[in-house]
Design brief:
The chain has about 180 residues and is mainly α. It is about 80% helix and about 0% strand. The longest helix is centred in the first third of the chain and has 33 residues. The relative contact order is 0.26. About 5% of the residues have low confidence.
Length: about 180
């Protein structure tokens, strides 16, 4: 695999994580570098580790999981997107979160959902490509959190709703790409 192909592959694989990190940034108020680092770290590590897991487990297991992985991604993204929309439409006094925290369980689910497509991507030369993919995802996700924060500050609750819609659109895109009805 050439380095040029690896760059395009890394950027392509990290686009879901980038979009989700923007929506995460929208929900946070006054983002601290630690928060952006943790979000980016989750996405970068999962995106970098998934090809290694796929390589270690071999093609047999990949054939099993690839038959339903898109459903897992769809369900996770659709649920979290719907929850974002629901939470943004609640009255302010009903909200229990301060807007400055993101739940680790949500971050974990999002990291899995955005990295599952890299599970069986690479078959040879696994260490450097996986590391590179993880680093690119980390950097783009870190930047995405701050882009999301700025958009959230400019447009407020409307950006949270839009972020939820983006997650749902990504979910349905994953579903439609993998379900061949026609």
């Amino acid at each position: 695999m050439s380095f040029t192909v690896l760059i395009f592959l890394a950027v392509g694989l990290s686009m879901d994580a980038f979009a989700v990190s923007i929506t995460s940034g929208v929900t946070l108020k006054d983002v601290k570098i630690r928060q952006a680092f943790i979000i980016a770290l989750f996405f970068g590590v999962f995106q970098g580790v998934m090809p290694v897991f796929g390589w270690l487990l071999g093609r047999g297991f990949n054939d099993i999981i690839s038959s339903f992985d898109y459903l897992v991604v769809f369900l996770i993204l659709a649920f979290i997107g719907s929850k974002m929309i629901y939470d943004s439409l609640k009255k302010k006094d009903e909200k229990t979160q301060t807007g400055n925290n993101i739940k680790i369980s949500s971050l974990f689910a999002l990291a899995i959902a955005t990295s599952i497509d890299a599970f069986a991507l690479l078959e040879i030369g696994i260490i450097f490509p996986s590391l590179f993919i993880g680093i690119v995802t980390f950097v783009l996700s870190f930047i995405g959190v701050y882009i999301g924060e700025k958009l959230g500050a400019l447009f407020g609750k409307r950006m949270e709703i839009l972020g939820g819609i983006v997650l749902i659109v990504i979910a349905f895109n994953v579903l439609f790409e993998n379900v061949h009805i026609f």
